[in-house]
Design brief:
Elements: H1 2-8, H2 25-35, E1 39-41, E2 56-57, H3 59-64, E3 69-73, E4 76-80, H4 83-89
Length: about 90
């Protein structure tokens, strides 16, 4: 779905899955910055564990205490939680 949308919009992005073990989380986030990856989605078991490794949180992620999206802005990683918007809309 994501890759089809990127192609349709002619964006130079690709959506890939990375299997990150909990003990490798910090290094995976460092790799995200080193590789210039624009952002990633986060799932269980990492939604709470990533928080100490991020440079900032959106107000939603801070209030919920969990992150499902990380944006890489240069070398600054910010955590967001878009789950709340889906819940509010239902």
């Amino acid at each position: 779905m994501h890759n089809a949308a990127f192609e349709l919009l002619k964006l130079n992005f690709v959506y890939l899955a990375f299997d990150v073990q909990p003990q490798d989380l910090k290094e995976a986030l460092e790799g995200l910055v080193a590789l210039g990856i624009a952002g990633v989605n986060v799932t269980i078991p990492h939604k709470e564990a990533v928080i100490p490794h991020l440079d900032g949180l959106s107000s939603e992620a801070h209030a919920i205490g969990a992150v499902n999206t990380i944006v890489n802005d240069g070398s600054r990683l910010s955590g967001h939680n878009t789950d709340v918007f889906g819940l509010v809309e239902t």
